[in-house]
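Exam review. A common question shows you a sequence with its structure tokens and asks you to describe the fold in words. Practice with the pair below. Do the first one on your own.
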Amino acid sequence: MISSASPTDAAPHYVPLADIVNDYELYSANFLKIRDKQGALVPFVWNRPQQKLAAAVRWQMARGLRIRVVILKARQVGCSTWVQGFLFHRCHLRGNRQALTLAHKADSAIKLFEMEQRFFSNLPEKGPLSVQKKHFTRRQITFAASKSSTQVEVVGEAGRGYTSQYIHESEMAFYEDAKKTQTAVKQGVPRHTDTAVFIESTPNGWGNEFHKSYVRSTTLRFDEQPDGRFLARHRTSGKSEYVRVFIAWYDDPTCTETPWFGMDDLDEAEKELVRLYAVGLEQLAWRRSCIENECDGDVEVFQQEYPADEVSCFLRSGRTAFDPAGLAYQLEHSPPAVPENTIPAASEIEYDAEKKNVNIVVKRKGRLIVFEPPEERHQYIVGADPSEGDAGSDPTPMVVFDRMTMGFPAVWYGRAEPDILARYGINLAIHYRNGMFAWEANNHGGQVRDEVLRIGYPNLYYRTVSADSVAMRESDKLGYMNSIRSRIDLVNTLRKYVREAPQRAWAPVRDPRVVGQFSTFVWDEGRPVADPGNTDAEDDFLIAAGICLMAHRGSVEEPLEPLGFDTLMRAYEHLGRSYGKALDPLQLAGLGVTCEEIERLEDFIVKREEGLKRKGLRSMN
């Protein structure tokens, strides 16, 4: 039996040593000291976010799994403290263990090590839990009795082959080369149950290693118990052995202040927080104060540093080139937000020379994903981004664009030499109701042009005379020339498409690879590019999709509208307004439209005119 002071410094009580070895919560409350937010030295009694994190660890341990946790968190909620205490507890009381903490910068490493120094300095001076300092070197503590050690390093200082049972990757989203660091460090973690890897960070953009680790993990449901602990239950299985823990700012009970306003004074964002997360006035008062005093009045900064949900925070952080709300709309309709089994089976498109038609054939390693088959009376564009097409070259993606729904019903992704890519593109265009075929004219685009001219496919995209031309006349030159100016037009059209899609209920992009490229397209030195800090970031799908949109739009001077608007408008003007009168189906059939389409157009015009009146503008009709 051992004696220790209780967290309230009451009379000593006695607990079995075995309980302390195996019970981190009991150990931390009785033997570890931390600095609270007021700077006082207090016993380490877990707060609500730390209890949530502990529940995830208990869930894995109860199933005999290795402890692997990825934590997305708001700032200053205590997750780093909990993980450092976990590593310290294991190394203090278990023999021959090594723990490694990786910080993203030197001053963070110093703060994390000072936390461990505080743990060490406040351990009992006598008894089984007392420690004799064997080594107390620069950012490393070695325990004489257990022969275990805990070390804090800055990313890049830890070398390959460093063997550790316990690893804490702190603020991983900010690592300079997170993929390389993870490969080097995690190879040293033995694959048995008495090991732990904690990946923890505030968000810093979409598509980086931290974000990918988070979305590939298993999700749990956390039910709060009467004693303040959480019970974790399985929700959905991930691709990795990691479980995810999300800690929002409102999970921290210290994020409260006395409110100086009432429920009737809330703005729309605050009302949404109340509706979705039952946030109280005291929490909203803290939020307002934090925005004003710590974020210089910038709500966007607060949403990055103190996330309220586990999707928008990734989009709002980093340097994304696309509208966060538009990106969120696309992400809601593609994996991992929807089950991966909703993605159709892979296939290939093949030309039947005997029947002179094309067929879609399901193949296990096919390069074509068909989300929607061709629809009657719809028109389509196939966009392609050619490359050399060999094994060492960039991929050569193609996308199919529906000019009526503004969606992308099919995606082809692989590598093909330019002339072969041209044949695949023509086959796709034929399948999609003899749609238009457009491609990037630069470099290998010339070989694509030569092949489509040899085949004689008629529905091809001809670029305008010049991006600087006032008339924007169509030229006799095939393909989209991606110059500095035209790339700006293409990117801005893509940005407009992403921004307006949710507002106008355009069909979402369902392919996670395309959506992923939207998410990792960022501003870098004033230019929108595939994230240079993300080795997996590409923009080839975006080029193919942008070419479709530019071919559809004609020029940046034209509105980005679904096809059919002009046709319906002409039909509408021909028939005149028809409120309260039946439309003649035969007359409509001659115009190539239906009663339903005319009715939808009338609804659109009424709404548009109402909007113009509200803005003080006259009707354009």
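Now try the second one, then compare your answer with the model answer below.
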Amino acid sequence: MMRMLKTHESRRVFPGGGNTLRSLLFGLAVVAMLVLGFWGLGYHSSEFRGGIGIQDSGLFSYPRYHVQIGEVPLSRNGQYLFAVRGLPPCAMDLALQIKGANSAEADQLTSLATSVSVSITDVSGKIVCFGGGSLSNSTRRGLRSWTLTSSGSGASFWHPACQQLPMSRHKSYVVKVSVLGTDQLSSKYVLLPLLQGGGVELP
């Protein structure tokens, strides 16, 4: 009798147990739907069109998106137009990366007499940004001149007027780069216009 009693007690069902399990499963289903919905509405790098390409470094990187617009040789004067659309919907910074250069060439880069101007306009003709000036003025770090940033792995020029630009994934943009005053020193360099932004900047 004692053994039968213990067996009977081990099968006791606690009231409310089924409801708790159903509530847990329902909660997990809601969370899964929200995650899928957010993913579906979020930006995908495959939306980008034009230029060379886009790199997504991941949510917890900064900057997250690196949009490669094109190549601009400093060996000849001229204007270079690039049409892009499907950009990440975030504030983006424009930079002119110098192909193959790094901090070891900083003195040469800041002595370039070549003038470079960049403008970005949207499909309606609205000017999103305009910045220009002689690359040799980059040592002044003024509000209207280019500034050189360099390290052992790369070098780029950036302009205060073309930072934190509000871009839309639904608009088309034209990036125009104008080069004037090329010489023998500048002719060996190639500029790579980039738009970078998004992600999480850690303290």
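Model answer, second protein: Residues 22 and 143 are 61 Å apart (CA to CA). The mean pLDDT is 86. Full marks require stating both points clearly.
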